[in-house]
Amino acid sequence: MPQCSETDGGYSARELAEALGGQLTGDDQRRFTGLRPLATAGPCDLSFVTDVGRHAEALAASAAGVILVPEAAGLKSTASRTLIHLDDVYLGYARASQWLGRPRRARAAGVHPGAFVDPESSVAPDAFVGPGAVIGAGATVGPQSVVGAHCVVGEGVMVGADTFLHPRVTLLEGVAVGDRCILHSGCVIGADGFGFAPAGEQGWEKIEQLGHVVIGSDVEIGANTTIDRGALRATRIGRGVKIDNLVHVAHNVEIGDHTAIAGCVGIAGSARIGAHCAIGGGAGILGHLSIVDHVTIHAMTLVTRSITRPGHYASGVPHQEARLWNRMLARLRRLAR
């Protein structure tokens, strides 16, 4: 099969091996321009395998030109295949994907003529502001950052360096976003928290939310996620936090560094979540409780009280056939009599 040449672009196996700290066997000048699964990869593609025993057949049949493999597997290269041996293949795959994904977020510097930039704001000369975007008074956009089409960067908002706002991100007044963050379309940062005082027969009296939101560096926030401003202080998202789509973070919540939160999680006001936690999809966390560092909360779990020890926590009933569930429910009802 033909190999890629320098005219095809991409990277050499040697460049990638040096960047990943891996041991290379085979042609170190073999080039790759894409990243694909073993089954569909071709001679100009990079691929990877984390479990050689489980995927031995796919590995043998793959036409990939460069493959990331576990160092412990002891695999050998061939005339048509270069191998990069790594201690942690999945981490290597993640870093290689960043190389190949860079063009997706590359933008030429400048402000689109269809954008509105308040004269009292500050946009770095090498930043990009897309069509229909609004930059409010006193806002700052840092070097090499991208503000996508129809984003709103409100008054006094601070956006750090090399941060990417996909189209239709809304940052309301006083929000601070760190360096190297990625915010996906539709997320709203700094909306009012859900604060109301009961007023008897008159209903509810609004409590103005006078705080703000502080987001650390290297944070990624998924599409249509909402993070509310604090009532009197800041809602805080720590460094390196990863938040999936459709997550709600209420006012005054604090999330520690490098915690990961899957989709459809709801976190009620004033909850404090530690560092290096993992929260499964659809989990609910009640307000005014604390969770220590290094806690894993399984999907659909309802956390009703503070967690004071690291570990795995779960609740809920896994699915089963409807007839079995109905039988179990009938027995539970009889126990309650």
TrEMBL record:
Coiled coil: none
Pfam families attached to this UniProt entry: Hexapep, LpxD
GO molecular function, one term: UDP-3-O-[(3R)-3-hydroxyacyl]-glucosamine N-acyltransferase activity
Pathway: Bacterial outer membrane biogenesis; LPS lipid A biosynthesis
Family the entry assigns: Belongs to the transferase hexapeptide repeat family. LpxD subfamily.
Gene responsible for this protein: lpxD
Subunit description: Homotrimer.
Protein name: UDP-3-O-acylglucosamine N-acyltransferase
Active site: 251
PANTHER family xref list: UDP-3-O-ACYLGLUCOSAMINE N-ACYLTRANSFERASE, UDP-3-O-ACYLGLUCOSAMINE N-ACYLTRANSFERASE 1, MITOCHONDRIAL-RELATED
Transmembrane parts of this sequence: none
Catalytic activity: a UDP-3-O-[(3R)-3-hydroxyacyl]-alpha-D-glucosamine + a (3R)-hydroxyacyl-[ACP] = a UDP-2-N,3-O-bis[(3R)-3-hydroxyacyl]-alpha-D-glucosamine + holo-[ACP] + H(+)
Organism, scientific name: Thioalkalivibrio versutus
Cellular component annotations (GO), alphabetically ordered: membrane
InterPro entries: Hexapep (IPR001451), LpxD (IPR007691), Trimer_LpxA-like_sf (IPR011004), UDP_GlcNAc_AcTrfase_non-rep (IPR020573)
CDD domains in UniProt: LbH_LpxD
